[in-house]
Design a protein that fits this description.
Length: about 325
């Protein structure tokens, strides 16, 4: 049975700084005691070549240059972006090459380390023809998405808004007061009493029993006519508001209308108390506020129910009336 001899093999070792200053012979191995990595020499390059690249823990943005122990070929994620050390000095940003997914910067971009669609990045040439629903009201054109319009009844105006130039209505879509539709122009349905003057509806004439007095303007009434307030009825004009004045005298114009009135009572005569029997009976005046020395006469008057009512009359002097060529009259009066 052959003898088995156990041999302990140790590698050339030292710190990483010491390694960098040593040229390892071809095939010679070296171990760094501080970074705990193995290198193999080629007889030419100082420090040799690392055996296997190392993936460093993820770093925050701008901190990959802190990996002073990194060697060529090492990789690290910084802010979700993958970098590999392609140079020899890890403290230089230019020594780190980005080896992650590259984007065109037009459609896709990185935002805070996240891959996203770039704003306004999808142009119409990247939209598939089946992107829109067939007959869904949207078309794909060479310049972009557009509303599907016929360009005749509906079109896109200069402001990019939908606009209708013609609306089709059937005859069943219109109601009272309108005519047309179903391919014919729509207009206002009027009788022969109306006409159109300059495309504006105008009154032509009124048929029998079609216009009430309320519809007639006051400015349309000539001399001798007026409208009765409240009722809207037409009647002959009456000066003085049709109030009767039995003691007035009136003047008339050539058409028989009253144009002025004046009272025929020229003045009131005050009855003076007298010791005579007849003088006391007419004592007082129309302006007296209450019985004084006036004579009081009680009379009976029938009311609306047919009953008799006693009324106290007080003497109030006389009223004087001018009778024209017959002279003046003084009529005794009583008031109550």
């Amino acid at each position: 049975m052959p003898d088995i001899e156990i041999v302990k093999l140790k590698l050339r070792r030292g710190t990483d700084t010491q390694r960098e200053s040593v040229v390892l012979e071809q095939g010679e191995l070296g171990y760094t005691t501080d970074s705990k990595r193995v290198f193999v020499g080629d007889g030419f390059l100082s420090g040799g070549n690392v055996v296997g690249a190392k993936n460093h823990p993820p770093m925050y943005i701008g901190t990959r240059t802190d990996l002073t122990e990194a060697v060529t070929g090492d990789m690290v994620y910084e802010d979700n972006l993958l970098y590999q050390l392609s140079g020899t000095d890890a403290a230089q940003l230019s020594a780190w090459a980005f080896i992650g997914t590259r984007v065109d910067g037009t459609t896709l971009e990185y935002d805070a380390g996240l891959l996203e669609l770039k704003d306004n990045g999808i142009t119409i040439d990247k939209v598939a023809s089946d992107f829109v629903v067939p007959n869904g009201g949207i078309d794909i054109t060479s310049t972009g998405l557009s509303a599907a319009v016929d360009g005749s009844t509906i079109f896109v105006n200069g402001s990019g808004q939908l606009e209708s130039s013609r609306l089709y209505l059937s005859s069943g879509d219109i109601s009272l007061g309108l005519s047309g539709a179903g391919g014919d122009p729509i207009g206002v349905d009027v009788t022969e009493a109306f006409t159109f003057d300059g495309n504006k509806l105008d009154f032509a004439y009124a048929g029998d029993d079609t216009v009430g007095a309320d519809a007639i303007a006051l400015s349309a009434l000539g001399n001798g006519l007026q409208k009765t307030p409240g009722t809207g009825e037409l009647r002959l004009e009456i000066i003085g508001g049709a109030v009767m004045h039995p003691f007035n005298t009136s003047e008339y114009d050539s058409t028989g209308r009253v144009i002025s009135t004046s009272s025929t009572i020229e003045q009131n005569l005050t009855g003076v108390d007298s010791t005579s029997e007849f003088g006391a009976a007419f004592s007082g005046s129309l302006d007296a506020e209450g019985p004084g020395s006036e004579a009081i006469v009680e009379v009976l008057s029938g009311n609306a129910d047919g009953d008799s009512v006693t009324i106290a009359l007080s003497s109030a002097g006389f009223i004087q009336i001018a009778s024209g060529n017959k002279g003046n009259f003084a009529i005794p009066v009583f008031k109550f």
